[in-house]
Amino acid sequence: MPHLHLHLFSLSPPLPPTSLRSNLPSPRVTVTVTCSATSASKPSPDVSLLLRAADLADRSAGLSSPHPNFGCVIARKNSGEVVGEGFLYAQGTKCAELQAVEAAGELASGGVAYLNLEPGDCYGDHTAVSALVQAGISRVVVGLRHPLHHLRGKAIQSLRSEGIQVHVLGEDLKSRVYEEALKSCLTVNAPLLYRAAFRVPFSVLKYAMTLDGKIAASSGHASWVSSKLSRGRVFELRGRSDAIVVGGNTVRRDDPQLTARHGGSHVPVRIVMSQTFDLPEEAKLWNVLEAYTIVATQRGARKDLQKNLAAKGVEVVEFDILNPRDVMAYCYDRGYLSVLWECGGGLAAPAISAGVIHKVYAFVAPKIIGGVNAPSPVGELGMVQMSQALNLVDVSFEQIGPDMLISGYLQPIPDLSPTIPSADEIPSIDPALSPYETNIISFYKTWDPFGAFSNFSPHPIQMPYENGKHAVWPSVEHYYQAHKFVGIDSPIARELVEKIMTANSPEEAARMGRRLQREHPKLVRADWENTKIDVMYRALKCKFLTYPHLNAMLRSTAGSVLVEASPHDLFWGGGREGEGLNYLGRLLMQLRSEILEQEASPKLTLTQST
Questions:
Q1: Cβ–Cβ under 8 Å, residues 446 and 67
Q2: Active-site residue 97, yes or no?
Q3: Which residues contact 303 (CB under 8 A, 6 or more apart)?
Q4: By the 8 A CB rule, do 128 and 155 touch?
Q5: Among 103-117, 157-171, 402-416, 506-520, the least confident range
Q6: Are the beta carbons of 264 and 20 closer than 8 angstroms?
Q7: 183 Cβ partners below 8 Å, 6+ apart?
Q8: What is the mean pLDDT of the chain?
Q9: Is 345 in a helix, a strand, or coil?
Q10: Which residue out of 97, 342, 477, 564 is catalytically annotated?
Q11: For a designed S-S bond to 479, which of 6, 317, 321, 473 qualifies (C-beta 3.0 to 4.6 A apart)?
């Protein structure tokens, strides 16, 4: 397939209103799409329906990361009547294609499915493809092939092997009438394309300034430069991001909270970059009950304050030399897809110089404040001639109340043949295996080739949890987090278990379990630290004995070291530099050994409970 020159397209659609940013799949709808002819050409119904699929996918932004934003529309073949829709509304939840098929019911048979992006069967069970096949879909129109190498083209090939007609924009559908649809499909997953190309998260620099280019008065006072409507838009931008970055000056001067306040379940991580660690003992960011905080600093800086913040639940990450490029590489390793920079000019300039800022949102307020020493949005870049100025591309203008929002790209989306990043030489910590004699298979996010090994993969398990009662848990993560409170003789503890069990996604269950553990330490079972490994192993065994394709995937790794490549979880994961205990990898290797032993000796019976 020829490369797509994505920079030819404008990539700045307006953000959808908050009311459209639902965490739940769209209800079944019936819409008739009609297209009127123009003097130049008659638009294809495919265009309108692909645009609808891209619009649905955009509702996933910030909710499904690091997965792509998926939308699916199913329409009747001849009339274009929409009979089913769906979008991926949280990491590890039901795929868009299955939602659309369930909404359409019998009306899906013989219909056409419109997908903004090729399905990504991350879990080895081909749910998206099988849903379309079993529903009797006769034709599939795909906006883009999957940008990750290990998934690219596989779903398309599988659909075609089932006799379904598949048309891909830019390949089978090359007319100029499809340019708008292609542009929308590219735009809705632009962060993933940037990440795949540059191996850093997609980063947006946001600031608000006066007409004379000031972000604060000479005194440092900055509340408020922009209007309330503009600030509402900022909350939406935060809600679409995995992390928000500020510098130490912003913490000292403004004491920000940096929460999304958009009503969704997604909560971005707050990251403070401070080279000297000259930070206040008390700050709103140190309250981690509702949002997680990471402080990135230089190695050895203020160990006393590091210890105090760690006691409050703030994570401190040390770098040999603190710079934006290395911090973004770290965020990449953590699986972040989009990062919003809300820093001052002193940090914005080195971030731009390092090439990690891809887009700019500038809110310009109709105010003049003056001041020779008043701060500006971007500090010194070393440019002495106007010809050296950085030009934005694909610029958009939007009036928001009294303010003007100017947005554009510093780096256009690249000419991309994407590849999936792989972990670099992760050392084994399992003494039973030598990293020099065996392959190392790392996994972390559910989009990885072996992502089904993750606790976040959407594979329900049926397990007992109290007094012999059985329940269906949506994922291993749901089961694990809830068991922090199982067995406690308290109605509140039982309520917490139910809340975690019914969480919308594994991501939400994990966040809820960790938060409730901090908020209700007395309700956490006293033996949790000693029993949590057994709890995890029981859940893993149930999962891999319930699903034959997962069992086969685990057996296929025989002879390889399995490493949960979390850079920050030093208990379950391998850590940033291999310093973690990798207990999840260890348990999977232990389970693999048991399964292989049972396979070699059929007289042995491997049961789900241990």
A1: yes
A2: yes
A3: none
A4: yes
A5: 402-416
A6: no
A7: 9, 10, 11
A8: 83
A9: helix
A10: 97
A11: 473
Question: Which class for 325: exposed (0-12), middle (13-18), buried (19 or more C-beta within 10 A)?
Answer: middle
Residue 326 backbone phi and psi in degrees, to 5? -70, -35
Amino acid identity for residue 95 in this structure: C
Predicted confidence band of residue 584 (pLDDT cuts 50, 70, 90): very high
Q: What is the largest CA-CA distance in the chain?
A: 84
Domains (ranges, CATH) in the chain? Answer: 6-188 (3.40.140.10), 194-409 (3.40.430.10), 439-600 (1.10.357.40)
DSSP 159-178: HHHTT-EEEEBTTTB-SGGG
- Does residue 167 surpass a pLDDT of 80? yes
Across 39-111, the runs of DSSP E, i.e. the strands, are 71-75, 81-87
**C-beta atoms surrounding 549 within 10 Å:** 13
pLDDT of residue 567: 84
Structure tokens at 1: 């397939």
pLDDT band at 149 (very low <50, low <70, confident <90, very high): confident
Query: In 3D, which of 9, 394, 357, 321 has the Cα closest to residue 198?
Result: 357
CA separation for the pair 497, 491 (Å, rounded): 10
Which has more confidence, 40 or 99? 99
Of 459, 466, 460, 457, which Cα lies nearest the Cα of 484? 466
- What stretches of 162-302 show up as alpha helix (H) in DSSP? 179-188, 190-198, 228-239, 248-254
Q: Compute φ and ψ for 313, nearest 5 degrees.
A: 95, 5
